Amino acid sequence: xxxxxxRRIVTAKRGFTLWALCVFAFLYLPIAVMALFAFNKPxxxxxxxxxxxxxxxxPPTQLGxxxxxxxxxxxxxxxxxxxxTYIPAILTSARIAAGAAIVSTLLGLGAxxxxxxxxxxxxxxxxSLVYLTLVVPEIVIxxxxxxxxxxxxxxxxxxxxxxxxxxxxxxxxxxxxxAMLVIRARFVGMGDTLEEAGYDLxxxxxxxxxxxxxxxxxxxxxxxxxLSFTFSFxxxxxxxxxxxxxxxxxxxLYSAVRFGITPAVNALATLMLLATIVVxxxxxxxxxxxxxSASIETExxxxxxxxxR
Amino acid sequence: MARTEEVLESAGxxxxxxxxxxxxxxxxxxxxxxAIFFLGPLAILVAFSLATQTGFDAISYGFDTSQYHLVTDxxxxxxxxRTLLMAxxxxxxxxxxxxxxxxxxxxxLSTYKLLALLLILVPFWTSFLIRTYAxxxxxxxxxxxxxxxxxxxxxxxxxxxxxxxxxxLPLFIIPVFASLERMDWSLVxxxxxxxxxxxxxxxxxxxxxxxxxxxxxxxxxxxxxSGEYIIPNILSGGNYEFVGNVIGDxxxxxxxxxxxxxxxISLMIALSGFVALYILFATKEERFGA
Lengths: 309, 290
Known about the structure:
Order of helices and strands of chain B: HHEEHHHHHHHHHHH
Strand content of chain A: under 5%
CATH architecture of the largest domain in chain A: Orthogonal Bundle
Largest sheet of chain A: none
CATH class of the largest domain in chain A: Mainly Alpha
Low-confidence stretches of chain B: 1-5, 10-18
Largest interface: A-B, 105 and 101 residues
Helix content of chain B: over 70%
Shape of chain B: globular
Mean pLDDT of chain A: 85
Structural class of chain B: mainly alpha
CATH topology of the largest domain in chain A: MetI-like fold
Helix content of chain A: over 70%
Strand content of chain B: under 5%
Structural class of chain A: mainly alpha
Oligomer: heterodimer
Radius of gyration of chain A: 25 Å
CATH superfamily of the largest domain in chain B: MetI-like
CATH superfamily of the largest domain in chain A: MetI-like
Distance between the termini of chain B: 22 Å
Number of helices of chain A: 12
CATH architecture of the largest domain in chain B: Orthogonal Bundle
Number of domains of chain B: 2
């Protein structure tokens, strides 16, 4: 009897593994294609009429069909890195995202600390508000923020006009909620025995926080910051309506995607993907070291993102 | 199950009374922030949806429900239907694709579990626009898929569906994986030892125990799918607009802000049941969604 059953389990496992491989292929094929096509040459027809030395000098409108492989070149990386609109937009996005990440993490940290041990009647309404900020469709928030910012400027003279500031102000709402959930999950998970011990041994409130709570929360704070940075950096919809004349990287990308894109964009996206992987790897190493040094931990860090844009 | 939870909870409560509390004012900054920059915009959106457009970019506040009557016009009702149907279909596809892989990770992997989770998450850390654009390269009518395999679905609802599943899959897998991880597999073993067929054991135990995770995950993808703006725009080339695109148009090109506001409020009302359900699940089971 046991034999046929084992065989069935083995085939079930095989089936699931096969399915998983297909899903991974589905997830990674587009990314691989994106990276590969960063090295793509213009179409043969475009090359035929071109006499210069650098094939990437061909104007974007005359590149021909770029969705099939035409040959290998690395010149798009050079073009992308010297583009007059791409790099400033990336820097603008990075600045806004860094600001939003810092403010979001601070707001989220405060709320997480206070809320985790508060009674239900305060916590549940606050939580509902937090989840609401995460699930209201972003397009609704975007147009609402647009009207709000425009109206506010009519009544409050020092309020900034539409631009990087308003993008930042809008993005912090989502970022703070994200940070709050990530930090609190960790805070609740790690229990309070060590804090209690510190307390009992006579260290004050602030000292306990600084020497015990903060170091143990650090992995969660780091991932909360990284998550809000990523969200903000990658966000298109809210900035599209509240940016005024400021160009962020997703806005530049979006118009490129809609109205003809060159492999230079693929090249920059590939470079940014590499940078992201490096950052994730470094963060992973930092988190792992933190976990080893605080080996008393039994709970896993809560790093699963709620990263809905 | 229920008893252990009770015991744990009462233990937690007992311990909590000793523990250092953090002062309540720490919530004030974020509460103020939400009040101004989240509730403020929503309030003014409601006011705008009831206002009257008196000219280009000029508005007088009041209680004018005519914009809402316009929303019930058959053209817009159709767009609402299409949006909800596409989001529903997209969520269903996401469940069908995502559940087996979450199951595979929780059940069969041990050493490589974390790696698999990381591989699921990495696409999520890359640009949403870039990923959608990458799909566009593959689905392009002049690309390999269309020319050599004859699958030319670009600019149709199928392209939008692929885009939805592709972009939201990780968001579904995470909560489902979390609930599968918490599951006690010895229950399944006990059931099969007692003679249950594997399928029945799965249906009556695994599926039932992980259903809250599936519902949370499904809502977590359904709600943003319904408000989707980028995917239909890029992958349908404007042929297959969602409500989000119509709203965007009212503020970008058509400049009928009261109508756009009324559409936004209507979308929120249409989604409110799902949103309430999601919040209920999420606040009940803190670890889901977080």
